[in-house]
């Protein structure tokens, strides 16, 4: 893993993006990896390493840089949860999208890149991945247990590239009625595949997370890898 610096589109400064590259010298597709409310933490870094092992370039921007650069929290303590929600409440999602667009453009120009790039996000990042599907030219977008996705319905007509949604049936932050509204709003959208994972809670695929569910995570990750390989290679 190495770090690069990117200039924010609004002129507010520079932010760090963390890059993982596959072995060898062959060109590869890039995945913009979008953090949870815990920052670019150890769990997200493990996901970056896994994507690189699968033959992709992974690049994870520090989206909380305007508030506190270098956030690396876990879901294991009340104090960390409190800090994470404070960062979430202070986060400007529109500016976050612009930072992700900058990262996406950089991903396409990485020396090892083949020019193809998509996004993959978890929790907050899952919501941001859907926003990238509606507001950017990413080649593919993958959302894991995004929150409040149903209230983005006015933007759904802008989706023009493959979008995969992984939804936890028992998600405490995205209840059944909201899930139903989301699926109804996307019913006729040919670009979207949505999967609901029975009996699991929010963050079922978080590496070493308190709600990690191995079977659901393996199934979801397999679907993701297949889609990314199809679109980015």
Automatic annotation (TrEMBL):
<feature type="domain" description="Dienelactone hydrolase">
    <location>
        <begin position="15"/>
        <end position="231"/>
    </location>
</feature>
<dbReference type="Pfam" id="PF01738">
    <property type="entry name" value="DLH"/>
</dbReference>
<dbReference type="GO" id="GO:0008806">
    <property type="term" value="F:carboxymethylenebutenolidase activity"/>
</dbReference>
<dbReference type="InterPro" id="IPR002925">
    <property type="entry name" value="Dienelactn_hydro"/>
</dbReference>
<dbReference type="InterPro" id="IPR051049">
    <property type="entry name" value="Dienelactone_hydrolase-like"/>
</dbReference>
<dbReference type="InterPro" id="IPR029058">
    <property type="entry name" value="AB_hydrolase_fold"/>
</dbReference>
<keyword id="KW-0378">Hydrolase</keyword>
<protein>
    <submittedName>
        <fullName>Carboxymethylenebutenolidase</fullName>
        <ecNumber>3.1.1.45</ecNumber>
    </submittedName>
</protein>
